[in-house]
Structures are given as structure tokens and as C-alpha cells.
Amino acid sequence: MHITQLNRECLLHLFSFLDKNSRRNLARTCHKLLEVFQDPLLWSLLKFHSPAELRKDNFLLGPALKHLSICWYSERVKVCNIEDWMKNSFQKDFCKRHENTVSDFLQAVCNRCPNLLSVTLSGCGHVTDDCILQLLKNCPKLRSLKLENCVRISDQSLEAVTLHGASLRTLHVDFCRNVTRAGLDRVRAKCPSVMLRADRSAGMIPDSKPGKKLMLEKASRKLVQL
Q: Which residues form the F-box domain (predicted)?
């Protein structure tokens, strides 16, 4: 029995076990399998493990998407998450290549995926407060927003939660060092139904703290001298 003789339900079940690349490769073999690949039922969950994956043509982005995860765990995350003034030329060049990748993808999500229920972003150093604002405004059903090591996120994102996160029930801002205690307290006061977690955030030294750059420069010079 050939795979194309299976009914649509069986094919969808088969596709559900494959990763995005395997789905796309299989879809290229015939028109029937391409139709299965394009079925929205197959794309309610999307997981990405690097910015490069966001540029591939191996997934479908649409109203069926309910759960989105972009988790980038590698040494390259550290390169993009350190301040620009600390980077060497190689680091700056690498970081610049990915500067708009995640934000552009999230803009597409805002335009095409109004039924999102959960979003997880980890190690996305270029994601800004504006990205989170647009996500909350365009995805009103969002119930879970988990941010980890997103260094540009600040109290502006927390304020956006209080204004546009009516459906939100879970908010994590772990290792987001520009989030302050005051911002967290406002969320707790205005959104008591939201389960808030901020591990290693408000207690960390934010990028915007006066004198931080000078302090680190002096420490760097001492290390060089040693």
C-alpha cells in the first residue's frame, strides 16, 4: 500500500510525528501530500531553536497557531545579549545579522495569528517592548507569556500587560534585567489574576543603571593589567 492511498486523517496523524523539515520534504513528493502539509490542523504548535529556523519555508503560519516557542540556547545567545560596547567586531557583525529576525517574525505572527494562546521567548536578545505590545494588542486570547533572558524587555512590557493583557493568566520575565521591582508591583496590583514570575530580574543590575558602563570598563582594565 502506497502512502498516498491513506485517507487524510491518517496522513495528518503521520505528519504530526515529523519535524518541520521532514514535513516539507515529504510535501514536495506529490500534490496530495502538499495539501496535507498545508492543512491548518497541522500547525497549531510551532517550536523554533534558532533564528535561522524562522527564515525557512518549512512551516505554515496562520490563524490555527495556538502555541509558539522560540528558545535559543547556545553560546551565541551570550554574544547577542551582552551590551554593544562590550562586543568585538566579530560579535557585532554576528549579532547584527540577527537583529530583526525575531521581531520581523513576531510582526508576521501579529498579522496572521490572532488565536494565539501561549508564547515562549528565550534568549531573544533583540526582542523589544514594542514587539510585546503589538503581540498583546493583536493576540487578545493570549493566556501565557513567558520571557527568559530577553534583555531589552523593560517595564514598558509590564505596562502593556496591564493595558492589553486581559486574557493573560501566566507571565514570566525571568532573567530580564531591565525589569524593575516597581514594574512588577504594578502588574501585581492591576492584574491580581496573573501568575507572575520574575526569577533573577528585578534584583539584577539593569543596562540603564548610571555608572554601570564606567564600572565595568574599570573592571575590564584591571583584568587586562593582571
A: 9-44
Other Cβ atoms less than 10 A from the Cβ of 106: the count is: 25
43-224 maps to which CATH number? Answer: 3.80.10
Q: Cell triple for residue 143?
A: 493566556
User: 1-42 architecture in CATH?
Assistant: Up-down Bundle (1.20)
Question: Across the beta sheet with 195-197, what order do the strands follow?
Answer: 45-48, 67-71, 118-122, 144-148, 170-174, 195-197
Structural contact between residues 176 and 147, judged by C-beta atoms closer than 8 angstroms: yes
With 0.85 as the threshold, say if the pTM is over it.
no
Model confidence pLDDT, tens digit, residues 148-183: 989 889 999 999 999 999 999 999 999 898 999 999
Provide the residue ranges of all domains of the chain, joining segments of one domain with +: 1-42, 43-224
Nearest to 187 by CA among 223, 152, 136: 136
